[in-house]
Amino acid sequence: QVHVVESGGGLVQPGGSLRLSCTASGSIFSIDTMGWYRQAPGKRREFLARLSTTQRTTYADSTKGRFTISRDNGKNTVDLQITSLNPEDTAVYYCNVVAVIAGEGYREVWGQGTLVTVSS
């Protein structure tokens, strides 16, 4: 079984910063990509950024330079640093993992999300 867990969300003032973390664990042979998405109330889930095993990074245009994705020190861990937060950034942030799972092959796995609330 594979688990994807996000952490680091919470309440933050406008202009503040947050660092979200995601860790994948379980029967993982290898990981192709790890990425971040978010979903605001009443909106579709939108792509933010992803990082491949070849260290190729892709950002959505909507990030506008305020989002930085990186691999943390631990294995199968990816972080998302967000700066200059505004109320429009309020959303549930999800970690997405595309990996080779034991006995299953390639599979896309989602975390349950972490809530970021920016209060004005």
Any descriptors?
mainly beta, 7-stranded mixed sheet, 4-stranded antiparallel sheet
Could you characterize what this model shows?
This protein has 120 residues and is an all-beta fold. 0% of the residues lie in helices and 61% in strands. The chain has strands spanning 2-7, 10-12, 18-26, 28-39, 46-52, 57-59, 67-71, 77-82, 91-101, 105-110, 114-118. The strands form 2 sheets. Strands 2, 4, 5, 6, 9, 10 and 11 form a 7-stranded mixed sheet that branches. β5 and β6 (57-59) form a beta hairpin. The mean pLDDT is 93.
Instruction: Count every beta strand, where a strand is a DSSP E run of 2 or more residues.
Output: 11
User: What structural category characterises the helix and strand content?
Assistant: mainly beta
Shape: elongated
- As a percent range, the share of strand residues is over 45%
How helical, in percent, are the residues?
A: under 10%
